Amino acid sequence: MAATEETDSRWRPVVDLMAGAPPVELGVMHSYHARKTPRRLLYTTSYYKFAAKLIAANTPPARKGAARVLDVGCGEGIGTYLVAKECGSARGVDFDVDLIETARRNWVERGADAGEPICAFEAKDFLAEPRADFDAVINFDVIEHIQPDNAAGFIGGMAANLRPGGIAVVGTPNVTSAVYASAVTNAGHVNLYDADRLHNEMAARFRRVLMFGANDEVVHTGFAPMCHYLIAVGVGPKKD
Amino acid sequence: MDDVTTKTNPTADGDNASRARKTGSEAEVWDGVRELIGDERIELGHHWSFNLRNDPKRFPFVLSRYKFAAKMAAPSTGPRRSVLELGCSEGLGTMVLAESASRYHGVDLDADAVATAARNWATPTRTFETCDFLNDERGEAKVFGTFDGVVSLDVIEHIAPDAEPKYWRAVTGNLADDGVAVIGTPNQTSEAYASPMSKAGHINLFTFERMHATLHGHFENVLLFGLNDEMVHTGFAPMCHYVMGVGIGPKRPGN
Q: Which of residues 54-93 of B touch A (CB under 8 A)?
C-alpha cells in the first residue's frame, strides 16, 4: 500500500506536467500513414534526426543552438519541429495548403514551448525568393516528385538558399527499391535516383557530397544499390 | 596483380562466379570456387595478431571505423580520390581506405609496423613510409602532398597536448581545399571502462564538445558521428564509445 502511494506521489507531478502540453493532431498525411503504414512515421523522423545532428555539428560553437534551417516540402512539419528543437529554428515550406495549416496549428499556434515559436510555416514555392542565409536546407521525399527537367533547378535552389558553408540534406527512395513500392507511392514518383546520379547532380552545386543510405530507420554507409533510401549531404554551396 | 580479395564490386565477382561450373560433385564445384579465390595467404603483423588473439571483437570495430572513414574521404561514388593515412600502423585499414581510392599513402612512426603494411598491402598506388609526420627536417608538420582525404584513427589520443597544433597542421596541410579529414578517437566518457593498456597510452582524450570546437577551429564544415561497437550513428554524444569527427575544407591561415 505504502509502495503504491509512493508510486502515485511520484507519478502525479509527471501526469500534471504532461497535462499541460497542447495536443498534437496528425493531419491527413500522417493519419493515413498511422493507419496504413505506421513505420513510415518512424523512418521519416529518423531521417530528420540524422539531418538535425549533422546541422548541429556543422554549426560553430559560438552559434550553438542558433542554426536556421529551411525544410522544403515540410508536409505536416513534425520533422521541421524536430530539427528546430535540435538546431535552433526552422522554416517549413510546402505547396500543400492543408498540410501547412496542420503544421501551423501543431507547432506554431499550439506550440508547447513558451515564448517565440521556433518554427514558421508557409505554403509557397521555396525557389521564388532565395534568401541565401540559411545554415541548412533539408528535404525528404521531395526530389522524387520533381520532374527530371526541373531537378537541376531544384538543387540549385537549395544552394541559393544557403549561407557560404551551409549544408543541404536530401533524402529520397532509392530507384532500386521501386519494384517493392506500393501503387500509391509509385504514382507520385517521377524522378527516382540511384546513388550515382544523386551524388553527381548534387556535386554540380556543392563543394563536397557525402552519401548515406538508410534501411528502415537505420542510417548507414552500406552498399548503395541495397539501400532502401538515399541521403545525400551537400556541403558548401558552390558559387555561381 | 589485382587479386580477387581487392575487388570492390560484387557484381564483378559475380560475373566470374557465373562462369564457374555448378554441376558435378560438391568437391568439384568447390574446386571451381577455389580457382577463383586464388592461393594468396596474408600474414598479419604483431600488432593485429596480438589483438586478434587477445580481443578479437576489436576487429569488426576497427574495420567499421575504416569503412566509415573510406565512405567519407574516398568513397566509391563520384570521382576517385586520393587518401593519406596518418598513423597507418600495419595497414589493416589500407585495404578498406584504398579500395576505391585513386591513391593511398600510409605513414607511421613504427618501422616494424610499416614494413608489415608494405609487405601485405603495397602496390604502385598504395605506398607506405616510416616517419614522424609531426616533424619534417625543419621540425614542422610534414607535407606528403595534396590529398582529397586525410584519415587518422586512434592517433590523436596519443599526441601530447602541446604537440596537438602540429598534428592539426599535418592534417590540414596535406588536404586539398575541398578535402575531407576523418579523425577518430575514443570518447573521453568511455575512459572509465578502458583497459589498463589502453589507458596508459591515452594522454589526450576528447569529448564530442571538444572535438566539435577543435574541428571548427580547423575546418569550414564539421560533422560528428559516434560509434558503439561497429555501429556508426548520430546518437546521444556522451553515450558514444567512440568519436568520429569529419572536417571538410581546411581553414587556411589568413583566410
A: 67-68, 71-72, 75-78
